[in-house]
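Sequence, please.
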């Protein structure tokens, strides 16, 4: 496939802290530009490990990851941080919001790292929070928000630097069905803007939206296909 935004080659990750865990084993995959892709598979089988490697949050034990023409796995740490801040938005499984900061400040933090002026940070953070329906919660701290609302702050933060790619780790895992429905609509909108979205999920509703599905079992790729069933 020519139009892949992310590509991996024999991507492997071994954790060795007292005992050896092969979390990911020689995974070769491609994610089409602009697609909504999901990563599925049983718990503990390497999905988060894969997502972290795709987003340059962690280094593989061996193998390669390309983001466009850049081999993420070979760039220096500071360059990698810069690419991450500019191109990749990450929504973590438990949101990872800073508890002492307001919604507005949590979103601003992402832009600070990208060197945006304070005034611009505040304006854009407010705009993004409005967009995800939290215009009345700018000054609220995470413990004053529901799970679904925290999720939306995390999404606003991930979108702060207008990334090309949005990576989400089980975003609907802790949401009730109404919050999940809203999340699906937001994901759809983000994808409609042309951003590539990669979601680790167990949810059939999320999977049903996806144009591209990746199945992981025991750290190995079991399938990498678009929804027309064409194997890649
Ligand atoms: N930081 C880590 N240190 C050691 N082992 C880890 C670490 N992260 C994940 N693992 C192990 O790697 C395997 C895959 O984990 P993970 O990628 O989190 O799976 P999933 O997201 O599919 O539930 C598991 O056996 C897990 O215990
Ligand atoms: Mg996980």
């Amino acid at each position: 496939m020519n139009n892949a935004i992310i590509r991996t080659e024999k991507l492997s990750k071994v954790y060795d802290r007292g005992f050896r865990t092969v979390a990911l084993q020689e995974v070769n995959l491609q994610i089409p530009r602009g697609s909504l892709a999901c990563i599925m598979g049983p718990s503990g089988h390497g999905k988060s490990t894969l997502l972290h490697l795709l987003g340059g949050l962690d280094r593989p034990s061996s193998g390669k990851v390309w983001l466009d023409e850049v081999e993420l796995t070979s760039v220096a740490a500071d360059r990698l941080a810069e690419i991450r801040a500019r191109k990749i938005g990450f929504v973590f499984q438990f949101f990872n919001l800073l508890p002492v900061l307001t919604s507005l400040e949590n979103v601003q933090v992402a832009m600070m790292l990208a060197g945006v002026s304070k005034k611009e940070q505040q304006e854009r953070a407010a705009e993004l929070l409005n967009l995800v329906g939290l215009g009345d919660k700018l000054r609220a701290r995470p413990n004053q928000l529901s799970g679904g609302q925290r999720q939306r702050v995390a999404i606003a933060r991930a979108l702060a630097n207008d990334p090309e790619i949005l990576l989400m780790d089980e975003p609907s895992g802790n949401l009730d069905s109404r919050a999940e429905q809203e999340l699906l609509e937001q994901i759809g909108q983000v994808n409609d803007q042309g951003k590539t979205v990669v979601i680790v999920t167990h949810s059939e509703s999320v999977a049903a939206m996806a144009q591209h599905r990746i199945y992981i079992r025991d750290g190995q790729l079991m399938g990498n296909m678009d929804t027309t069933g064409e194997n890649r």
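The longest helix spans residues 177-192.
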